[in-house]
Design goal:
With 200 residues, this protein is an alpha/beta fold. The chain contains six helices and seven strands. The chain is 40% helix and 22% strand. Strands 3-2-1-4-5-6-7 form a seven-stranded mixed β-sheet. β2, α2 (43-50) and β3 form a beta-alpha-beta unit. α1 packs across α6 (169-199). It starts with a strand and ends with a helix.
């Protein structure tokens, strides 16, 4: 039973690419049925097109409230009959108008460990904290998004990312992104195989 995934992005889409590659290779028993971006110039939309996947720019309309936008987005995602909605660099906080439509089915990836550096620029903030001697490592987590809390839903998986003495922000970012790609695909693999086991 191949799972149907909708991926929400706002930018480059390197994590989306990791999912697309894992689906194409058969590593993930899943297919990406739609890639949706709130930004027209998100490179992830081009990645989706190149993979033959529906790519949608879904802008906020003039005078549209956040609730109206989220309801419209939820209605659209519902038409895709997806098993899971993956937030892979989606830079908007989804309201309960969206989340209540997909309980336990919205999965977020965040480049920090639980209870550290929620929100944007997490890697930069971790690097600064390391420079000040406050932390020795950072990490990545995949978690469910049950409500409007920022990066604090039930944790599905985490992985530590060491910070080395000669690290620059760029080298740390590269290592975090590599960890994101593997952790996200491995977590999805675990979830999907558990779901398939339940079905049999």
């Amino acid at each position: 039973m191949t799972a149907r995934l909708v991926v929400l992005i706002s930018g480059n889409g390197s994590n989306l690419q990791a999912i697309l590659d894992a689906c194409a290779s058969g590593e993930l028993d899943a297919t990406v049925v739609s890639v949706i971006s709130n930004k027209a110039d998100a490179y992830g939309l081009i990645r989706a097109k190149n993979a033959g996947v529906e790519s949608i720019h879904f802008p906020k309309l003039e005078n549209e409230s956040r609730q109206q936008y989220d309801s419209r987005l939820a209605n659209y995602v519902t038409t895709k009959q997806s098993d899971y909605i993956i937030l892979a660099g989606w830079m908007k906080i989804l309201s309960s108008f969206f989340l209540s439509s997909f309980p336990n089915r919205v999965i977020n990836l965040h480049p920090a460990l639980p209870d550290t550096f929620p929100g944007t620029h997490a890697i930069e903030r971790a690097y600064e904290a390391w420079q000040c001697g406050q932390i020795k490592h950072t990490g990545v987590m995949v978690h469910l998004v049950p409500d409007e809390g920022v990066d604090n839903g039930p944790v599905l998986a985490t992985e530590l990312v060491p910070i080395f003495a000669d690290d620059t922000l760029e080298s740390l970012e590269t290592r975090v992104h590599q960890t994101e790609h593997s952790l996200l695909t491995n977590t999805l693999k675990t979830i999907l195989s558990a779901k398939n086991t339940e079905l049999h």
